[in-house]
Amino acid sequence: MTGLLEELEQYLTLRRSLGFKLESQEKRLRSFVRFMKARNEPRITGKLAAAWAGSQCGPATWSSRMSTVRAFARHVAVTDVTTEIPLRAVSRRSEGHAPTSTLTPRSPIFSRPC
Asked: Which of 114, 18, 113, 23 is nearest to 75 (CA)?
């Protein structure tokens, strides 16, 4: 889990060097990393992100929390190819089931020629 904490610090430092304040995003991401640590999860997955985003918040906050994790996951995926990036089009289901669609380096979108 130390690796993910280091990734978080690097991400925050990089984004702040570009002029972003990241006050609420930092709190959210630290919460997400604690969530992962409590579950002994070594990597970011779409299911994990959806479970965290849906915990202790309503539908209005869910999308924002997912967006925050998605941006961080893109950063982590540069050095950890097992990281899943939750798809943007995924929405929370009313039955409370976490969406499972994710984007990984092995997804078809990465293999398309430009």
From this structure: 18
Low-confidence ranges of the chain (pLDDT < 50): 91-100, 108-114
**Amino acid sitting at position 34:** R
Q: Map out the domains of the chain as residue ranges.
A: 2-108
CA distance 84 to 90: 13
* Per-residue model confidence (pLDDT) at position 55: 84
Distance between CA atoms of residues 58 and 34, nearest Å = 20
The answer to whether 37 and 3 have CB atoms below 8 angstroms apart is no
- Residue 81's pLDDT is 92
Residues 6+ apart with CB under 8 A from 84: 43, 44, 45, 46, 49, 73, 102, 103, 104
Enter the DSSP assignment of 19: T
Query: Residue 58: what pLDDT?
Result: 75
> Maximum Cα–Cα distance for the chain, whole Å?
41
The predicted structure's pLDDT at residue 60? 74
At 112 the three-state DSSP class reads coil
